[in-house]
Write a structure and sequence with these properties.
By secondary structure, this protein is of the alpha+beta class. It is about 15% helix and about 30% strand. The chain contains four helices and nine strands; from the N terminus they run H-E-E-E-E-H-H-E-E-E-E-E-H. It has helices at about 5-10, 95-110, 125-135, 235, and strands at about 35-40, 45-55, 60-70, 75-85, 145-150, 150-160, 165-170, 175-185, 190-195. Strands 1-9-5-6-7-8-4-3-2 form a nine-stranded mixed sheet. Helix 2 (about 95-110) packs antiparallel against helix 3 (about 125-135).
Length: about 240
């Protein structure tokens, strides 16, 4: 099986459409967010809602991804901060939630810097996905890095691939899980906050997300086009 939608793939191997059943792809339907969202309050650059995922049955939001980008003096930095909450009624362990969040971040990172074009070897994207699944299954072996959340230290498990970083909370507990994808920047010194407001991200109310709040240009658009496959992909190309 090959992936067919790069936009959808960067959020994982499923449809990332934000349109609900019977919505006909409309842009103004709002979806509630019933959980706090991880933000970057002191980002000196562009901030926007990158995308979100819904539970199509309950019509509530299950994932919120916030984009951060800046380009100065020829150096581009991009950071995605996701808040993930499993749909109500699902019963999974904390370890399952850790691995699931790690996969979300890792597959997004792996797809982030693929060169454009259709000249990939047959089965390459499947091999890439298998590789990401194998890496996230070994999450406990990922190095640990610490960031700040509302002034308190929080440990992340970190995976480096393709020149970027994927990270997820090491101990998410029972609440929302935070995961991150960065390119052109390290996570050292990063200060996150938990907020009920997305005003800084162009969203007037966190309780009603809609497709028309998504930007025309994603945060990753600040990055230069890749000149070829990063060496981390080479073993998967043959």
């Amino acid at each position: 099986m090959e992936f067919s939608q790069v936009r959808g793939l960067t959020g994982g191997m499923r449809d990332m459409s934000n349109a609900g059943p019977g919505n006909g792809g409309g842009t103004t339907t709002g979806y509630s967010v019933g959980f706090p969202v991880f933000t970057v309050p002191e980002w000196l650059g562009t901030k926007n809602l990158d995308f979100f995922q819904i539970d199509p049955v309950r019509q509530t939001t299950t994932e919120v991804w916030l984009g951060h980008s800046v380009s100065t003096e020829g150096h581009a930095r991009m950071l995605l901060v996701a808040t993930l909450m499993e749909p109500a009624g699902k019963r999974i362990t904390i370890d399952d939630r850790r691995v699931s969040a790690a996969y979300e971040a890792a597959i997004k990172l792996a797809m982030l810097r693929l060169p454009a074009g259709d000249d990939r070897p047959a089965g390459f994207l499947r091999r890439l996905d298998d590789h990401v699944k194998a890496e996230t299954a070994s999450l406990d072996h990922w190095p640990v890095q610490t960031v700040s959340v509302d002034g308190a230290p929080v440990a992340l498990r970190v995976w480096r691939f393709g020149g970027g970083i994927a990270a997820t909370m090491d101990d998410p507990g029972a609440g929302p899980v935070c995961c991150l994808v960065s390119y052109g920047m390290e996570l050292d010194g990063l200060e996150l906050s938990v907020s009920g407001s997305l005003d800084d991200y162009g969203v007037p109310s966190v309780s009603a997300l809609s497709r028309d709040q998504l930007p025309e240009r994603a945060a990753m658009s600040v990055l230069p086009e890749p000149g070829g496959y990063h060496r981390d992909y080479h073993a998967l190309l043959s």
